[in-house]
Design brief:
The protein contains five helices and no strands. The chain is mainly alpha-helical. Helix 2 runs antiparallel to helix 3 (48-56).
Length: 96
Amino acid sequence: MLLIYWIMRGWRMPLLDARAETAKGAAGGLFSLLAYGMVIWAASVGRMGSVSALRETSVVFAALLGRLFLAEDLPAGRLASCMAVALGAYSLGRPS
């Protein structure tokens, strides 16, 4: 709904003067929408266990990308959580 409001105002909003940052945010939203569509499609053609396992690994990738590109901390607790998610995803996705 915000996009419709933004278009109706002629692409001008007082808090969104930085067009480059706004474009990055819009691209991130578009990629998020595409990723969700891909998950829905994959669930309709594949095994749900494998699809859900792969989907849950996005948390692990987000933590790693945050560490590599944003210099975020990756303390032992967060690293252990990522390992647990990865192990769970492997367990769910492996063939029976």
